[in-house]
Design a protein that fits this description.
The protein is α+β, with helices and mostly antiparallel strands. Helices cover 44% and strands 17% of the residues.
């Protein structure tokens, strides 16, 4: 009769915790041939600030500009009743001034401040770690992985392996 084999996928930050997890798994009876680690590469280029129709990342450079443009348009139009050019021109001037100010604030924030935070925090590469083991050892393997600070796990059950004395259908 065959045995049920499972694969446990997990992700780690590339750190000493992964090495400790591998060592603990070896001590619990998992062979080196049943473990596989795949390091992921980090993105080498900066994110694009302007979205295309096919690619959007959730960062909006116009939201602050739209809000400030609206606010300054109302202020410009109301003050424009007392000024020489009238409320329409001063409303348009307020809109343009507010939009450009908000756009520049967002651009500065995402290009300078966010980039500095990313550099200070550092980009830590991640590793996908796969362990193949018997279903009976699956809970122990997951417990060891969680103990060594895995970021997440997934369990995939394979079909039973056939022993050498079973006949093929």
């Amino acid at each position: 009769m065959g045995r049920n084999v499972i694969q446990i996928f997990s992700t780690f930050e590339h750190s000493i915790h992964l090495e400790l997890a591998i060592s603990s798994l070896e001590k619990s009876g998992i062979s080196k041939n049943a473990m596989f680690a795949v390091p992921l590469t980090n993105r080498k280029t900066d994110r694009r600030l302007f979205d295309s129709i096919h690619n959007a990342d959730g960062i909006s450079l116009i939201s602050t500009g739209a809000a400030l443009g609206t606010a300054l348009a109302v202020i410009g139009a109301s003050v424009g009743f007392k000024l020489a050019w009238g409320p329409i021109y001063w409303g348009l001037i307020g809109t343009a001034t507010g939009f450009l100010t908000g756009f520049m604030i967002d651009l500065f924030y995402y290009k300078v401040i966010k980039k500095q935070r990313r550099l200070l925090r550092g980009e830590i590469p991640q590793v996908i770690f796969i362990v193949e083991c018997d279903e009976a050892k699956g809970d122990i393997v997951e417990e060891i992985l969680w103990h060594h600070f895995t970021l997440g796990t997934a369990r995939i059950e394979n079909r039973p392996e056939k022993s050498s004395n079973e006949s093929a259908p």
